[in-house]
Write a structure and sequence with these properties.
Length: 200
């Protein structure tokens, strides 16, 4: 079992501000920390990574977060496990499969997300959600007003957390429950889509 001291050993700062964000990083990066912990637990539970790999990966991911740079634990772990760049996508897909298997609702990989247009109007209307999607590297891949919204990532935990926050935000603002779709991206599409949405 992953000890709480391992998961909580390096906390992201709570007062640092990103130059272009109104919210403090502590308010936003809390979601990234939640994703790190939930992903680590799933990887441990499925034996997809050793305790040493997870410890190293958690520290490395948190260091990126402390610097204000989004990073996903699945990619970090795949690199720690020594996969060459040409095999990285396949390794991340396999890790994502293991994490997805721990969730009640399995998330399938969709190959066409790179062709979808970034929902700039939705991001402008829901700046908070845009920031959360950015730190979790789980972009909103489509938004039909507030009726139907989709988010996708290499990491099923990231999309689950973003989806939960979409439900909460839309419900609080409009008193309705949106239909939120969660899906997974292959590594190449994920790199392309996050670059398009978040200008990395």
């Amino acid at each position: 079992m992953i000890s709480s001291s391992l998961c909580l050993s390096v906390q992201p700062p709570t007062t640092r501000r990103h130059a272009s964000w109104r919210a403090t990083c502590g308010e936003i990066w809390h979601f990234a920390e939640k994703c790190v912990i939930q992903t680590a637990v799933a990887l441990h539970k499925t034996r997809a990574a050793s305790a040493a790999e997870l410890a190293h990966g958690i520290v490395a991911t948190r260091k990126s977060h402390e610097a204000g740079e989004p990073a996903d634990l699945l990619e970090v772990i795949a690199r720690i496990q020594g996969y060459a760049e040409e095999h990285l996508g396949h390794a991340i897909l396999n890790l994502g499969n293991k994490v997805a298997a721990t969730l009640a609702l399995y998330q399938h990989v969709i190959p066409f997300a790179g062709n979808l247009i970034a929902p700039s109007v939705f991001y402008e209307s829901f700046d908070h959600l845009h920031k959360i999607a950015r730190v979790l590297l789980s972009p909103i891949i489509f938004a039909e007003d507030t009726d139907a919204i989709g988010t996708a990532s290499i990491n099923p935990m990231a999309t689950k957390i973003v989806a939960e926050e979409i439900h909460r935000t839309v419900s609080n603002r409009f008193g309705i429950r949106s239909f939120v779709t969660t899906a997974r991206l292959d590594y190449e599409n994920w790199v392309s889509v996050t670059h398009k949405h978040f200008e990395f």
